[in-house]
Prior knowledge:
Largest interface: A-B, 40 and 40 residues
Strand content of chain B: under 5%
Low-confidence stretches of chain A: none
Number of helices of chain A: 11
Shape of chain A: globular
Oligomer: heterodimer
Order of helices and strands of chain A: HHHHEEHHHHHHH
Mean pLDDT of chain B: 86
Helix content of chain B: over 70%
Mean pLDDT of chain A: 86
Strand order of the largest sheet of chain B: 1-2
Number of strands of chain B: 2
Number of domains of chain A: 1
Radius of gyration of chain B: 19 Å
Distance between the termini of chain B: 32 Å
Strand order of the largest sheet of chain A: 1-2
Amino acid sequence: MDASMVFAQFMSGLSRGMMLFLIASGLSLIFGVMNILNFAHATLWLVGAYFCYSFWYLMQDYGFGLWLSIILAALTLAAIGWVIEVVLIRRVYKRELPEQLLLTYALILIFGDLIKIIWGVEDKLIDRPPLVASPVFIFGMPFDSYFIFVILVGFTVAIGLWWFLKKTRYGHIVRAAVFSREMVSALGIPIPKIYTGVFALGIFLAGLAGGVQAPIGSITLGMDMAVVIQAFCVVVIGGFGSLLGTFVAAILVGEVYAFSILFWPQGALVLIFIVTACILILRPWGLFGTPTRT
Amino acid sequence: MIRYWWLGVIFLATLILPVVIGEFWIHIAVEILILALFAVSFNMIFGYMGQLSFGHAAYFGVGAYATGLLMVKTSIPLPICLAISMITAGIFALIIGYFCVRLTGIYFAILTMAFGQLMYYIIFQWYSFTGGDDGLQGIVPPDWILSATAYYYLTLVIVTAALIVIWFITESPFGYTMRAIRENAERIRFIGINVRKYMLINFAVAGMFAGLAGGLLGPFNRSIAPDLCNWHQSGVPVFMTVIGGPISFFGPIIGSVIYTFLFAFVTGFTEYWPLTIGLVIIFVVLYMPGGVMGLAKTKFKTPITKDLMVEAKGSMDTET
């Protein structure tokens, strides 16, 4: 194994990590602010991928079709997230943890079947536009050019979220709500509106991730099941509610996956679970989280 | 014990049940019994200890695989296989629980889920030992319980015995210590009780009974698949308990009856079972907090409901 192969593997791990980051960032944001663990996050990600396919199918004659579809899929999912929050999640803020978990768990089952009803059980495949159709060669190793797009989107979203949380007024409110919702609410800021916005933003990110995922391979039912647990692992390792933590952990998990494939293919996921369990036992608040939350 | 006369009536009814109902419903009844034991063992952690385990299927699966592997690869008689299932699942629960009881709340839920998925992937990928995603086929029960009715009686006896044991555990001083830990772990620590040790013992005992329930499943279905261990299966006792009501010992049993009947009924005319159960869960969570038992408690104040509530002791009222 030489340096160029290591680099190729690194890049594939990075693109995998960026995909996980796109999913986990929304999950982490929702949990950090609302204290609700959204089990259905990856299922909504898959719904995003299917929406992206449908939009692309309608616009497949145009070169910009795919790129526009990704954005439209993300916006559609933001709308779905908004509806879910207003209709369901809002009613269980004050309930106990198991009821909140069961509610989002029920969404997995419902959306899983809705996908079957709307899009059928066949796999969906998107023809990529010429720009990202053929591989590029990096140090003589072929590398899927679409993965470069995935990495770019990942970094853009990371910077965009960072800018939003650190530099804008709404970002400040959201960050304050992570620490004390009572205080924020006492300052006259309507917490339910903030929650709805955060939930919609989180699901928007899931939809964006789904749209970006759509052209990578075929879109299949049940894809979400493997991803949701990995996204949980990323959030746990990074620390709930920490953007930086999610970013670092996503890259870590992506790379662990990419490199363990070379040495011990069956063990990739097992290794990730062991790392997650160790983090939970030793530092339940994650690598970059704050230990104050319980 | 005279006030539990209606339990005797139910038991007698279950004894004559196979004479009245057809073969299909006997299968459903066996499933209800197995899943009821699974859900009651889950409720030892959830209802009595106050922690949500989202990886309880791991012990169910370990139990199923222990009996399944022993029956396929050796000729050990079934009762011993079931005992080994219990012990194996108990050991796994003891090891995993050792780490899990250090956490509470959402972290407990995620850690149990992570370990559950770990078990799932190990079973899923260890082809040479567990058969991987092909599962295990040809787990044929011995001749004396080959018919559905005979298997029903065997399951009935074992599950009833297990439920009685769990009942006595939860009504013992140990059971009351678990309730106290659920209400306020810190105070219990001040009294000088080793909270983690008690939680660990409870976790391991719950794992043992889940393993017993799993062990009963293999010979009944004649096959087992790794899906028995994954987190979807872990969701099943959570639904059952929430539908039935975690506040009562009998809640998960009622939940198992409702869930399994609903499954048999709905899958009869539609393939969209997940959609149906998803909507049912949302309805129960939003409009029936406390499940069937919670509803019975507030709406129907008969002596039997009072007995059904026997374990509640106002727990869920104080927590909200």
